[in-house]
Design a protein that fits this description.
This protein is mainly alpha-helical. Helix content is 72%, strand content 0%.
Length: 246
Amino acid sequence: MNNSDLAQILIRAVEEADSSDRLLDAVQELAAAGIEESVPTLIAALGYNNPGAAVAAVDGLIAIGEAAVPSLLELIDDYNYSARAWAIRALAGIGDVRALDTLLEAAKTDFSLSVRRAAARGLGTLRWHQVPPEKLESIQTQVLETLLVISQDPEWIVRYAVVTSLETLAIAMPAAVNNAVTLPDRASRITNQLQQMLDTDVDLGVRTRVKFAQEKIQQQQHQEVFAPKRKLQDTEEVPHRGGGRR
């Protein structure tokens, strides 16, 4: 049985499910198959009044990845808010840069804290290799500006997500020591924001996550500073073939 035949069987099971439990089982099986042909059905499942099936569908769409993005973006403007919210979660999990504008808007304005959290987290998992080099700096700056704004979100879980994204953004940027012209400002803004959150955030969980982020960023900077020296030393220590005492 090929993937297309399997997809049709699993899709039919979703369409013919006559109870919440059977629908959940059918969507879970379809999602687990990871077949691109199943994307429309998985997206349709986002709008069912079945949270378990929606979670399974989101997981399946994330596993399928980039192929699901165009259809998910089309769904964003749909009248069904519940489906839209699940779609944003899926886009955040995939990390495709085509969803950038959607994630930025959702992180700043969505009334659902879970959607804002997902969007904030998604801004930290964008696949930067998809961005043309000439646009990378401007897009990363745009993401940083949004993260700085939503770091004041009233919900701790959103601020927690902001911290994780500030960490990954800092690590994704080349070390400031190697890009003295463009990066110190952005790097220092991330550092300053994390320190401000550590000093002022009322939630212990957020402050603890800030400390972890600071440690990870410092480790990354240390590695980038000393890696070239280690590489040079390793190169110098390798003897030429045929050299040395015989």
